[in-house]
Structures are given as structure tokens and as C-alpha cells.
Amino acid sequence: MAEGLELLGKALAAYWTAPLPLAILAVCGASMATLLYVFVTNGRNPRLRVSLLTGFYALTMFFWLFVGVSLLLCVWQARSVAYRTSGVQIAAAGAVLAALAATIVISALVWRFAPAAVLRRFPLRGPEPGEAWTQSYADLLAEFEGLPRTRIAIVDSDAPVGMAVGGSRPTVLLSRGLLGALDRDEAETVIAHELMHIKHHDAGFKVFSRVLSRVLFFDPFSKFFDPAVHREREYLADEAGGRTTGKPAALASALLKIADRGPTPRAAWGLSILGPAKGVFSRYPPVRERVRRLLLLSTLLEGAPRTPAKP
Predict the structure, then answer these.
(1) Which residue of 139, 201, 254, 291 is 20 to 30 Å from 235, comparing CA positions?
(2) pLDDT value at residue 311
(3) Distance, CA of 102 to CA of 65 (rounded, Å)
(4) Does the domain spanning 126-302 belong to CATH 3.20.20.70?
(5) Looking at residues 16-33, what average pLDDT do you find?
(6) Which sequence spans correspond to the domains of the chain?
């Protein structure tokens, strides 16, 4: 036992003091820092920012997989790593290949299958005659914004659910309880808010990051930075939806009514228009701040100077 532990200690010391593994970690860390810098300095390009965050998540996953596989190889091939001249190089190359392959496979599977898995959690149906206007309105707004046709699915639940799910067929989920609690103007602004998530590529990324943040539950990024990004995306969807409909005050009213209806289902946390909003770990901004910003936008839109028509 003592001899095995001594051998393992030598293997770990040889591996983590060798230039190659340290260089791999340094390149990975520098790439992550570069992505974050470009993200911070491109606040007006939503599509680019989502792509940067996706790449950052992939690099984060690669980083931890490389560390984990390296430790496994040091345990499994301790003698080779500790004593063979090329042992460290072979182990590092194996760790890079294994981490890269696992990162690509996991990312592809999450992007491909996670949206459908989210939809299966809800009792869905198509809009009934009294709800058919939601699909017509979504079609009109999607055409105006240059978006692919987005399906409206009704959640048979009294809980207030309004969320967008990306994938090959974008879908906006509206619960029976949400539509019953809101008037027509308020419901339209909720639909617009969710379509803005699709326009800004948030719908797919929110599902992607939610799954990976659970896989990387120990990673500081998924605990602090990721929720902050999601809060920013909610503000952006609020503003864009309010500007598109010209009714930001109606969206503010909708948020207050949804908040009064009680908590959203656990399956919709982090995805629905409203959810738990407490502290730095929440993916939602405070309702009061969202309402304040929307009412300020409403005042600005109402007071915006109008250009007189040319004769």
C-alpha cells in the first residue's frame, strides 16, 4: 500500500511539473480569458455573445475533463508516467484526445437532444379555438423579425409558464394558467419576449447551459458568471420585446401578474419568463427592477419626438 502511494505520488509530481500538461492548461486558460474579453467588449452583438459563451462552456468542460482524465491516467499508468522517458507526453496526449472527444460528443448531444427532452417534461397540446390567436400573432411577429416559424404549444397547467425552447423547431410554451391571468396586450408582450429569446439565440443556449451547469456543478463559472449572463439576457428580451410591440408597460403588468400567481414549476426554472430571483445564484433579475426598466422604456417611447411628415 505504501509503495503504491509512493509510486502514485511520483507519477503525479512528474506529470504536473512537466512542461506539456502545464502548457495545455495555460493555453486553455488563455483561450477562456480571450473569449470572456471578447464577450464583455461586444455588448451589442447578441448572436456573437451566445456563440462566445457556448465556446467558453466547451472550453470549461474540456479543461475539467483534461484534469480528470490526466489524474485517471496517472493512477492507471503510474509506473509509466513516473519512470518512462515519454510517459508524461503519452499520458498528456491521451488526456487531450479523450477530453476533446468527450467535449465534442457531450456538446453535440446536449444541443441535439436537450430541447426535445425539455418539451417532454410538460403536458403539451396545440392551441384551442379561443387560443388560436397566439399562433397567428407569433407567425406575424416572426415574419416581421425575420425568424423561422415558431410553434406555439399550450401547457395544460394552471401554473404561469411562458418559455422558449430552441432546436430544429423553435417552440414557445404558454400555460393555460398564464393565458387566463393576462389580458390580450399582456399575453402578446410575453410572446414577443419569448420570440426575442429565439432571435438572440438564447432559447437554445439556455437549455444548453442549464444542462452543462448541472454536469459542471463544481465549476465556479456555472455558479457565478452563468447566472449573471442569464439575468442580462432577460433584461435584453424585456427591452427588445417592449420595443417591438411598443407596449413595455403591458409586459411590466404581465410580470407582476405572473409573480402574483405563485412559483413556476420546477421543470421551468431558468427557462420560463419568471422564476426564483434571489441573490447572485439566480438566473432572473429582480421583478421590481425589470418592471422599473420597462416603465422607464414606456415613458421614453411615449415621449420620443416624432419626425414630422415631409410634404
Answers:
(1) 139
(2) 47
(3) 8
(4) no
(5) 91
(6) 2-119, 126-302
